Amino acid sequence: MKEDKNKLQSMAFVPSDEEYRKGLRLVILGGGESGVGTALLGKAKGFELFVSDKGEIKKKYKDVLLNNEIEFEEKQHTESKILNADIVMKSPGIPDTVPIVKQIRQAGIKVMSEIEFASGFTEATLVAITGSNGKTTTAMLTHHLLKKDLNVGLAGNIGDSFAKQVLVENHDYYVLEVSSFQLDDIDRFKPSIAVLTNITPDHLERYNYKFENYIASKFRIVENQTAEDVFIYDADDAVISNWLQNHSIQSKPLPFSLTKVIEEGAYLSNDKIIITIDNNQIIMPTENLALEGKHNIKNAMAASTVAHLLRIRKQTIRESLENFQGVEHRLEHVLKINKVHYINDSKATNVNATYFALESMDAPTVWIVGGVDKGNDYKELFPFVNEKVKAIICLGVDNSKLFEAFGNMVDVIIETQYMSEAVKIAYKVAEAGDNVLLSPACASFDLFENYEDRGRQFKNAVRNL
């Protein structure tokens, strides 16, 4: 068995042979959605299990672990119970700089992400979607386009964990929203269809503040693809195009573009999306798209290309594009009060996401911005701020960088550390016909639990006006 364990540590996936797995110890770092889902799958597949979380495990996850008799600890990492692992599944939120992770790697223990682990136990066709922005919308839209005709799950950074779905639901297809953090810990994860929406600087604190490290992480989505697989990407994105000029990929490229004519892939012409794959062409009008904005035309192109590849009927694609409900906290229209539109874009946790939000504003805008700055460069927002923003409300613990960047561009710039106060200020400043936009361009962890909490507080404050 020791020989088998050593062999496993050098392998990049979990063998499907049940006899091979007996006695192997799987340690899971993080007792959240991905961790508990992996624990359930791991138990079903015969692993010896231990879950360890440095923080407090939420009651709903703790109850699952208790009910399934899975050993766990919280508020600590016990080295003796972790460093005897054969495999460690590390939740994506845990950086490699954490001392216990350093010790695990120094001990030569195999570290993998949930998507790597779960993909070893399914024969399903995998559609993996990543990108700095748009991946949630594109993943949800892709799932929406496929679900009428196919047995398809939606997982990854969204919904129930991939591992849990592999165990309980066993879909024929999975649409996976995949982050760079999840891609960092793969070796053999291989989607049949990979989608890259865009690459802009984000999460650089996890990549030694080197953009090239973050770019390389995103492109790991194609590293195991073969000529039988497909890579769908934004041909208008200079970062993606530059990388592809200097690196070769094995999969079939299917680019999409708003500005270029694409022979094999998707492009926009006269307000119609034209998708061509192997001389099979479909044309989709954009006039009735449920989602607004140029960036959402790109998201629709990517999702429709996947659907066309998987032979979804044109009528189904068209109807699904028109009735898609959108993503909570992404340019979500909340209410109209005294002819002022209140818009929740809390999911905009980087500058590029806020760029798309400001670009789509068609009226004078009171902009609520701020949070944990991730090394942001706000210069690309200057034209929109000059043109569209009438007042800025800074919502963060430290707003100095925002004042430095925008203080001379608007007549009104105010700071607060309370969402309710930010919304009340916006209510006083806004006039009929204006927009009030929460699009923070920053992470949320200084004042809120996460971006969802921030967005829900915004919506509640608006409803209480």
List strands and helices in order, with pairings.
Layout lengths: L1 H8 L8 H4 L3 E5 L3 H12 L3 E6 L5 H9 L4 E3 L4 H4 L4 E4 L8 H8 L3 E3 L1 H6 L5 E6 L4 H12 L5 E5 L5 H7 L4 E5 L2 H5 L8 E4 L14 H8 L11 E5 L3 H9 L5 E6 L7 E5 L2 E6 L2 E6 L8 H16 L4 H10 L8 E6 L2 E5 L6 H10 L4 E5 L12 H7 E7 L4 H7 L5 E5 L2 H11 L5 E4 L12 H13 L2
Parallel strand pairs: 1-2, 1-4, 2-3, 4-5, 6-8, 6-9, 7-8, 9-10, 10-11, 11-12, 16-20, 17-18, 17-20, 18-19
Antiparallel strand pairs: 12-13, 13-14, 15-16
Helix pairs in contact: 3-9, 8-13, 8-14, 18-19
GO molecular function, one term: UDP-N-acetylmuramoylalanine-D-glutamate ligase activity
EC number: 6.3.2.9
Catalytic activity: UDP-N-acetyl-alpha-D-muramoyl-L-alanine + D-glutamate + ATP = UDP-N-acetyl-alpha-D-muramoyl-L-alanyl-D-glutamate + ADP + phosphate + H(+)
CATH topology of the largest domain: UDP-N-acetylmuramoyl-L-alanine:D-glutamate ligase
CATH superfamily placement of the largest domain: Mur-like, catalytic domain
Q: What is the approximate shape?
A: globular
Low-confidence stretches: 1-12
Question: Structural class of the helix and strand makeup?
Answer: alpha/beta
Our count of helices gives 19
* Number of β-strand runs: 20
Content of β-strand: 15-25%
The assigned CATH architecture of the largest domain is 3-Layer(aba) Sandwich
Give Rg in angstroms.
23 Å
Largest sheet features: 9 strands, mixed
Q: How many domains in all?
A: 3
Q: Oligomeric state of the chains?
A: single chain
Tell me the span between the first and last alpha carbons: 65 Å
Per CATH, the class of the largest domain reads Alpha Beta
How helical, in percent, are the residues?
A: 25-40%
What's the overall average pLDDT, rounded?
92
